[in-house]
């Protein structure tokens, strides 16, 4: 099978798995991550195109916040990839990337360095969590999970474990910026993503300044 046909099949697989998502992890998110990954690939010619884009398409279909049975979702992706003629090494590499690239994984003791292809997809995903899109997705996600918009009495959490991070009791949308989103620009792997992230950081800090000024009736 040609790589283009394999990627078309993977795109269709992901669309089916994430159909109906109302948490900011729908196919529009996936398509933006793929677009970001293509842009980063142009700057990193040694990265494998098929591995990078397959991982970009599949990075959220095994996520524990989106599927109830992670193991079975993983088995399903593996057999799907074999069915479209990925060889065992390619399957293993894609699975390694999608299992190890998430922010929540970085809060655990079980961390493994990503290959260049994984670093690109991680940057592509993180770029979609910041800036104007990032602000919108955080509000969308927070609303879906009944978070408060803001409460100055509730302080942002620090040094969270993954379990604490996933516990949304007493979480506010504004605190999510301090707990995660504002930290992402410094965590970028590739120079181009780092540069784009700097601009998006400015968008978020301006938004937070305006938000607080308006909250306090000063604007
Ligand atoms: P990862 O998939 O890398 O582990 P997350 O699980 O944090 O990352 O989810 C990805 C996106 O979901 C975030 O970038 C953000 O837009 C949104 N999100 C996650 N947790 C929250 C939260 N508590 N409040 C608002 N938005 C959130
Ligand atoms: Ni994602």
UniProtKB/TrEMBL annotation:
- Gene Ontology molecular function: any one: hydrolase activity
Q: Look up the domain of life of the source.
A: Bacteria
Q: Where is the HD/PDEase domain?
A: 22-139
Keyword Coiled coil appears in the UniProt entry: no
**Matches recorded under InterPro entries:** HD/PDEase_dom (IPR003607), HD_domain (IPR006674)
**Keyword list, A-Z:** Hydrolase
Answer yes or no on keyword Hydrolase.
Answer: yes
**Matches recorded under SMART domains:** HDc (SM00471)
Protein name per UniProt: Metal-dependent phosphohydrolase
User: From which source organism is this entry?
Assistant: Secundilactobacillus pentosiphilus
What are the top taxonomic ranks of the organism?
Bacteria, Bacillati, Bacillota, Bacilli, Lactobacillales
């Amino acid at each position: 099978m040609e790589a283009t046909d394999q990627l078309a099949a993977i795109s269709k697989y992901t669309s089916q798995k994430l159909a109906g998502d109302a948490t900011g992890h729908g196919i529009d998110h996936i398509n933006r991550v793929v677009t970001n990954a293509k842009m980063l690939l142009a700057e990193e010619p040694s990265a494998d195109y098929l591995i990078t884009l397959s991982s970009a398409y599949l990075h959220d279909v095994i996520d524990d916040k989106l599927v109830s049975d992670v193991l079975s979702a993983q088995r399903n992706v593996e057999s799907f990839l074999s069915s479209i003629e990925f060889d065992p090494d390619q399957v293993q590499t894609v699975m390694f990337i999608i299992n190890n690239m998430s922010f929540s994984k970085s809060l655990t003791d079980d961390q493994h360095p990503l290959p260049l292809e994984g670093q690109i997809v991680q940057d592509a995903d993180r770029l979609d969590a910041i800036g104007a899109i990032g602000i919108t997705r955080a509000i969308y996600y927070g609303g879906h999970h009944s978070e408060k918009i803001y409460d100055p009495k509730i302080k942002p959490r620090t040094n969270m474990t993954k379990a604490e991070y996933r516990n949304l009791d007493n979480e506010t949308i504004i605190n999510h910026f301090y707990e995660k989103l504002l930290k992402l620009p410094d965590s970028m792997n590739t120079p181009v993503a780092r540069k784009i992230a700097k601009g998006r950081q400015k968008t978020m800090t301006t938004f937070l300044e305006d938000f607080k000024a308006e909250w306090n009736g000063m604007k």
